[in-house]
Design a protein that fits this description.
Layout lengths: L4 H6 L4 H27 L3 H17 L3 H16 L6 H20 L6
Helix pairs in contact: 2-3, 2-5, 3-4, 4-5
Length: 112
């Protein structure tokens, strides 16, 4: 679930700016979702870790800290090419979080 506290504080609660940043998030997270899936399918663990890092930052901006922490774990595992059997679970959870966050924004998140 999205938590807008970070955006509200860093934009001085500028609704126009928050709306623009949420639109940017929606666009970027979709690209990152495709990038993670592609890297996973190609077994390109280095790229998977890099995309996980970018997506982690996106989740942090919209206050999805638990999801960001999951991606940080994936990023670290990818750097070491460790516990590869866990990557699919991380990817699946990421996809669900992406879809849920985009839906939350599209359904009209409370900006007050």
């Amino acid at each position: 679930m999205i938590n807008l506290n970070y955006l509200k504080v860093n934009t001085d609660n500028d609704v126009t700016m928050i709306t623009a940043l949420l639109e940017m998030y929606k666009s970027q997270i979709q690209v990152q979702k495709l990038g993670l899936q592609k890297a996973f399918d190609e077994k390109n663990w280095g790229e998977l870790g890099e995309v996980a890092h970018k997506a982690k930052n996106s989740f942090q901006i919209v206050g999805m800290q638990d999801e960001a922490n999951n991606l940080q774990q994936l990023e670290i595992l990818c750097q070491k090419e460790q516990d590869i059997h866990l990557y699919k679970d991380f990817l699946d959870r990421f996809i669900v979080a992406c879809d849920n966050s985009v839906k939350e924004i599209e359904d009209g998140i409370d900006l007050s």
